[in-house]
Amino acid sequence: MELYITELSKYVITLFIALYTLECFLVFRHQEEERRNGCYIRQNLWMFLVHFSCFLVICFETGKPEYLLFYALQQILLFATIMLFRMIYPRGNRLIVNNMCMLLSIGFVVLSRLSFEKAIKQFFIVTISIITGMLIPYFIRKLKFLKGLTWVYAAVGTAALGVVLILGATTYGSKLSYSIAGLTFQPSEFVKIIFVFFLAGALCESHSFLQIALTAAAAGLHVLILVASKDLGSALIFFVVYVLMVFIATGNWLYLFLGVGGGCGAAALAYRFFSHVQIRVQAWRDPFSCIDGAGYQITQSLFAISSGGWFGMGLFRGTPDAIPFVEADFIFSAVAEELGIVFSMCMILICVSCFIMFMNISMRLQDRFYQLIAFGLGVIYLFQVFLTIGGGTKFIPMTGVTLPLVSYGGSSVLTTLVMFFIIEGLYIIRQEEGARRDKKKKRKRRAKYREEQTAEEEE
Amino acid sequence: MFVTYLSVAVFLGMMGYTCHYAVTHRQEMINNSYNGRQELFIAQNTRGKIYASGGQVLAETQTDEKGKETRVYPYENLFAHAVGYASKGRFGIEAQSNYYLINSNARLSDKVEDEIAGEKYPGDNVFSTLDVGVQEVAYQSLGIYKGAVIVTEPRTGRVIAMVSKPDFDPNQIDEIWDELLADKESSVLLNRATQGLYPPGSTFKIITALEYIRENPDTYGQYSYQCSGRFTHGEDVINCYHGTVHGSVDFTKSFAKSCNSSFANIGLQLDRTRFGDTLDSLLFNGKLPVSFAYNQSSLVIDRNTSDSDVMQAAIGQGTIQITPLHMNMITCAVANGGILMKPYLVDCVKNAEGTVVKQFEPATGGRLMSEEEAQILNGLMQEVVRSGTGTKLSGLTYTAAGKTGSAEYNNVKEDSHAWFTGFAPAEDPELCVTVIIEGAGSGGDYAVPIARRIFDEYFGV
Question: B220 pLDDT exceeds 80?
C-alpha cells in the first residue's frame, strides 16, 4: 500500500508541478493583469496539490502525526498569504506571490524531510517575514524620500559589512553571521538590498563619468570588504549587480565590456592569490580527484542528483543527508534526488519565471529610480539561483550561496521575501501610474473632443 | 531585454547540462565507493544472479532463515576472474555490472508482495556471454600452468571464455583474502587475461608483418632472405628459436616458420615514425574500448628508436608488453576483415520476471586495418597452420589460422612463454582464441594444442 503511494505519488507530483510551471509562462500571454485570473487560480490549485501530495507521502513514510499538524499550519500560512495579499493589494501582481508561495512550500517539504526541527524554525521565520513583508508595498509607495538617501545607503552598507569583518577577524577568521536567540543573521544578505537602492539612487541622478567613478569606488569598497571576509559568493553577486546596473542605466556597452573584463581580471587575480579559490576551482574541474577533501561536497551532490532519475527516488527513499550543508547550499540536489530531475527543472523554471516578471515590471516603470531597483533586485535574485544551482551541479565552481526561498536560512529567506515585496510595491506603483495615465488620457480626449465641438459650432 | 535573454539562455544551458549529466553519469555515480546510495540499494534489494549464456547460474545470493546472505558461486574456481567476487571490494562481472545487480526493476505488484512478506526485492539478473563448456575446456587445458585463455567471437565481440591461472575459489574470498594479498609472487587476484602484461614474442610478427605490407604493398611478395639461424647487425645478434637455420625464406615462409632473423631484417627496413603510428592505431599505449578492468599495452617506436630496439621489437621481444586481451582484439580485427568489435561480457540484464531491462548490442570499436591487409594477414596465418609452427591445428574438419609465439622473458634461454593467437574457420571466422602459458616452452608445442581443444569443443568435433 505504502509502496503504491510512493511510486504513484512520484508521477503525480511531477505532473502537478509541471502544470504549475506551464501556467507560470502562460501568464505572459496576457498583458492585462485582469485577464490572467484564470491562470492564477489554476496555479493555486496545482500548488495546493503538489504540497498536499508531498505531505501525504511524508506522513505515510514516517507515520508521525506531527507532520500532519505541521502541514495544516503551512497550508493556513500559504492560503492566508495569497488571500490577504489580494485583499490588501488588489492591484498587486499575483504571479510573484504565487511563485513565492510555491517555492516556500517546496522548501517546507524538503526541509521537513531533512530535519523536522529546522523546518519548524524556517516556518517560524517565514511567518514573521511575511507579516512584515506585507507592509512593505504600502511603505514603498508612501516613503518618497527613499530616493534621496543614495550615499546614506552606501555608508550603512559598508558599515554593516565592515562590522562583520572586524568581528570576524577577532573571532574565527571567517565569520559571516551573528547569532541572536538561536537565529542566525548574515548581514551581507540584507546589505544586498541596500546596495541596490544605493546604485539605483546614484545612477538615476546622473550618468556623468564622475558619478560612475564615485559609485564604482563605493561598490568596490563593498566588494573588497566581502573579499576580505572571504565571502566570495556575495562579493561576486555585488560585483555582477553593479556592472549590470551601470550598463542598464547608461545603455553604454563600453561599461559592460569594462565590467566583464575587470571581473575576469579580478577572478584571475583571486585565483592566483587565494588558495581557497584555487581549491574551489580544482574541486570543480575534477571533483573526483579530491573526493576526500575539497571535492567531497560536490561529488556527494552529484551522486544525489544522478541517483534520482527523471522522477526521483521518492521522499524519504534517498539519502540526501549525505551531502554536508544540504539544507542550505545543496537543497537543489536534495530536491533532484527525491523529487526527480523533472521536478527540479520545473523549480528552476519557476525561478526564471519570477525573474522575467521582475524584468517586465522594471521595463514598464516610469520612474528611473524604481526601474533600476526592480532590475537590480531581479538580477540579484536570479544570479543567486544561478550560483547555487550551477555550483551544486558542477556547471560552475561552487560558491556556497543559498537557493532563495527554498533553502534553510533565516536571513536568506527574510531578505528574499523583502525583495519580492519591494517589487510588489513597485508593481503597484506602476499600476497606479498606469491608471492615472489612462484617466488623464481620457480626460484629454474628452477635452479635445469638446474643443472640436465648440470649434464646429463657431463655424 | 538583452540581460533577460542572456539570463534565460544561460539557465536553459544549465538545465540541459544538468539533465544530461545526471542521466549519463548515473551508473558511474552509483558505483563510486564514496556514494552511500549503494548501501541503500543493497539493503533494499537482494543482489541479482549472474548467468552463463547457456542459462547456468554462475553467481547467486542465498538467504538463510535468519536473513543472512551468502554469495554462492556454484562453479567455484572455474569463473574466479571472469565473474569475480562481490566481497572485499568487487571484481569481474560482479564489479562491472554491480549497478544492475543491486537495482531492482521487479514488477510493482511483486515488490508489494515482498514488502508484505517482509522480504527484500529481487535484484536484476545479469546474463553473461560466457559459455560453461568452452570455459571448462580452457580451464582444464591450462592444467597446473600459470597463464590465461581468452575466447571471443570476432564478428560480435562476445567473450565466450576467459580463464586466468592461478585461480581461487570466490566462495572463500573472505577467508583467503589476506593470504592472497600476502602472496605477492603469483598475484592470484590478477586477471591475467585482461591485466597480465607479457612480452608477445613471435605473435607480434602479425603487427610487424602488417607494417611491412603497409609500407611495401606491391613488393612484399618479392621479399626474400637467407637465414643462417642468426642475424647480426653491428654488435646486436638475433637468434632464431633454438638456433634453427631456415635457409632461403620469402615473406610468407618467414612468417609461417616464425624466422627471427628474417623479421629482424624486416624490422630494420621499416619507417619508424610510421611504425609508431601503426602501433597507436592498434591501441598500444592507450585505452581499449572495453568496460572491464584491463591494463594498457605498451610499446613506443619513433624516430629516435635505436636499431637494436627495433630489431627486438620486430620479433616481439625487448620492452613490449601486451595483454592477452589486446592480442585477442588485434587477432579478431584480422579475422573480421579489419574491423574490431568491442569485446563484451554481458549480454543483457533482465528483471526477476525475465523482462529485459537492458540489452547490450555488438558495437564496433573502429577499423584497425584495411580489409585487404586483413585478408593478407589471414592468408599468412593460415600458412602458419598449414606448414609452419602451428601444424598441430592442421588436418581438421575446420581450417584454423593463427600465429604462435615463444616469448623469452629472462636471460636463461630455455624459459619462454608459450603463445598462440588465432581463429577458425579461416574462411569465415567464428571464434578467436588467444592462449598464453607462462614458462611452458614453445607456442607450437604447448599453446596450439589448447587452442585446438577449444575449437573442437566449440565446433562440436
Answer: yes
Beta pairing, strands B125-128 & B50-51: parallel
Q: By the 8 A CB rule, do B94 and B318 touch?
A: no
* Contact call for A302 and B17, based on CB within 8 A: no
Interface test with A, best of B35, B107, B116, B357 (most A CBs within 10 A): B35
pTM of the model: 0.77
CB pairs under 8 A between A and B: 100
DSSP per position, A391-404: HHTTSS-------T
Residue numbers of A between 39 and 98 with CB closer than 8 Å to B: none
**Please, which residues have CB within 8 angstroms of residue B98's CB and are 6 or more apart in sequence?**
B30, B31, B38, B86, B90
DSSP string, A205-268: H---HHHHHHHHHHHHHHHHHHHHTT-HHHHHHHHHHHHHHHHHHH--HHHHHHHHHHHHHHHH
Instruction: Please give the residue of chain A at the shortest CA–CA distance from B24.
Output: A306
Mean pLDDT of B110-117: 82
Model confidence over A331-383: pLDDT tens digits? 999 999 999 999 999 999 999 999 999 998 998 888 888 999 999 999 999 99
User: A35: which 3 cell numbers?
Assistant: 485577464
Residue B455 C-alpha cell reads as 575449437
Is pLDDT at A175 greater than 60 in this prediction?
no
Q: What do you get for the CA distance between the two ends of chain B, in Å?
A: 78
Domains of chain B, CATH where assigned: 26-120 (3.90.1310.10), 195-459 (3.40.710.10)
**Per-residue pLDDT tens for B147-177?**
999 999 999 999 999 999 999 999 999 999 9
Contact A395 B17 (CB under 8 A): yes
Interchain proximity B14–A300, CB inside 8 Å: no
Q: Where are the domains of chain A?
A: 1-141+286-449, 143-273
The DSSP symbol for A200 reads H
Spatial separation of the C-alpha atoms in residues A27 and A38, rounded to whole Å: 9
ipTM: 0.86
- C-alpha separations of A220 from A212, A256, A275, B56 in Å: 12, 16, 22, 72
With CB atoms and an 8 Å threshold, state whether A386 touches B21.
Answer: no
